[in-house]
Amino acid sequence: MAKLVTIFGGSGFIGRYIARRMAKQGWRVRVAVRRPNEALFVKTYGVVGQVEPILCNIRDDASVEEALNGADAAVNCVGILIEDKKNTFSAVQHSGAERIGRLSKELGLKSLIHISAIGANETSNSIYSSTKAKGENAILANFPNAVILRPSIVFGQEDQFFNRFAKMATMAPILPLVGANTRFQPVFVDDVAKAAEAALLGSVPKGIYELGGPEIKDFRELMSVMLKIIKRRRLIINTPRFIAKLMAFGLSTLQILTLGLFKNSIITKDQIENLGIDNIVSEQEKCLGNLNIDPLDMGSVLPEYLWRYRPSGQYDAIKDSAKNLRS
Q: Is position 145 within any domain?
């Protein structure tokens, strides 16, 4: 019988690419998510019955155990950028990871892959980064042979980084950035999926791998690349940290005063802490090169999905061509 992998958060940005790759490998794929009715699209990744979304809450032992029951391997892709009610950084990225690692060991799974993030540091002032590190430690304490993947900023069709700022550029004359000089090493989402695939197929030694693309650019440079692709001129302004913190405080206060009716998804104090630290691959850690993966550069991918933010959208290339016609 074909092997079975449970992918927690398998309908999310990174998870769906891993699910697609494992289905192509002939594995059965169990996509564990909170809202399976919103993840029905993953069924198209394989033949009938090969890829199935199931209900799972990683804050609950019984739910995670049911999702792992009978599986040969598991991948944890669950992570959050903003806390929402019971889904806190600690509950999701630390306790949730610990639960998956512990139950994977108890149920005798053969392999476990955990998606973390570059910058995971237990002593960080950022709760996001510290809980990422605590989650890694909890995974390894329970499942020493696990493979930890730490990507930098991940880009691709459904990303919430370039898409977010490109959309902002269609509406505003300026792009205010927090940490404009902070360096990133963007990695293509399918390259992250390739790394997870290699780990699941057993061709990757245990340990931590930091995943970054071939280019290192600061935040301002990334926005310049994006603006060039969408053919828009915008003023890029570096927002001082103290102003950013005042904004974050005001927005978070508004969220409290409205009892959550307004959700601060713009900027938080925790995000400001993260944006002050470079997000690039460390020379001390293994990387995509150790996995024999040649990462794609941004220029090969970004134009394929950012065209929608150009002034004329899908007709932009046609209009440019028309300018060269002679009457």
A: yes
Q: Is the pLDDT of residue 253 over 60?
A: yes
Q: Residue 321: its pLDDT value, please? A: 65
CATH classification at residue 98: 3.40.50.720
SS3 of 260, please?
A: coil
Tokens 């992998």, residue? 5
Q: Which domain holds residue 98?
A: 4-155+185-215+278-295
Q: Is residue 232 part of a domain?
A: no
Give the other-Cβ count within 10 Å of 24's Cβ: 11
Task: Determine how many CB atoms are found less than 10 A away from the CB of residue 307.
Answer: 18
Angle at 298 between CA 293 and CA 302, to 5 degrees: 125
What type of residue sits at position 5? V
Note whether residue 134 is domain-resident: yes
Q: In 142-182, which ranges are E strands?
A: 147-151, 154-155, 174-177
- Please say whether the beta carbons of 77 and 7 come within 8 A: yes
Number of separate domains in the chain: 1
pLDDT tens, position by position, 80-94: 999 988 999 999 999
- pLDDT on residue 265: 87
In a domain, 223, yes or no: no
Rounded CA separation 46/287 (Å)? 30
Bigger pLDDT: 283 vs 183: 183
pLDDT reading at 11 higher than 70: yes
Rounded CA-CA distance 53/51 in Å is: 7
Q: Check whether 121 has a pLDDT greater than 70.
A: yes
Least confident of 151-155, 253-257, 315-319: 315-319
- Specify the 3-state DSSP secondary structure of 216: coil
Residues listed for the chain: 327
How far, in Å, CA of 41 to CA of 51, rounded? 10
d(CA 216, CA 48): 42
Mean of the per-residue pLDDT values of the chain:
94
